Amino acid sequence: MAIVGAVALLVTLLALGGFFLYQSLPGTSVSANASGTSADGEETSDMGVLYIRVIGESSDVFVRVPGGDVLMDDTMTQGQSVNYPTAEKGLEVTIGDPGAVEVFVDGEERDLSERGPDFSFTIDAQGN
Fold first, then answer.
1. Half-sphere exposure of 8 (CA within 13 A, CB side)
2. What residues does each domain of the chain span?
3. Contacts of 12 (CB under 8 A, 6+ apart)
4. Which residues pair with 95 in a beta bridge?
5. Are residues 103 and 110 in contact, defined by beta-carbon separation less than 8 angstroms?
6. pLDDT tens column, 38-84
7. Helices (H) and strands (E) in the chain, counts
8. Cα–Cα distance between 113 and 125 in angstroms, integer?
9. What is the DSSP code string of 23-69?
10. pTM reported for the whole predicted model
């Protein structure tokens, strides 16, 4: 009976270790240059200038300051979201799979579901 308990404990510890190892891998969280947000109950007034949430399997997301710094170049997976509260110099955004994401600009949803792969758009500079 003690052997069965030891085996069950070992299996549990291995499963937990694997889970936490997976969570620590790069690409399983939102970029540090953006503020992560909860996907549920998000108020449109709290979404900032740009809010992207993956509702499909995954999508490549590229966000940069026009002619400047790359803020995000990552593959986001289902349930992940990213929020850019301000865009003082504007933002250039490219979405790899527009049908897999919800995009809000200034709190208003942009329907990208009919757009082709690698759809790009620009958000004008805002002094927030």
1. 5
2. 1-30, 32-123
3. none
4. 61, 119
5. yes
6. 444 455 557 789 999 999 999 999 999 998 899 999 999 999 999 99
7. 1, 8
8. 25
9. HHSTTSS--TTSB---SSS--GGGS-SEEEEE-SSEEEEEEE-TTS-
10. 0.64
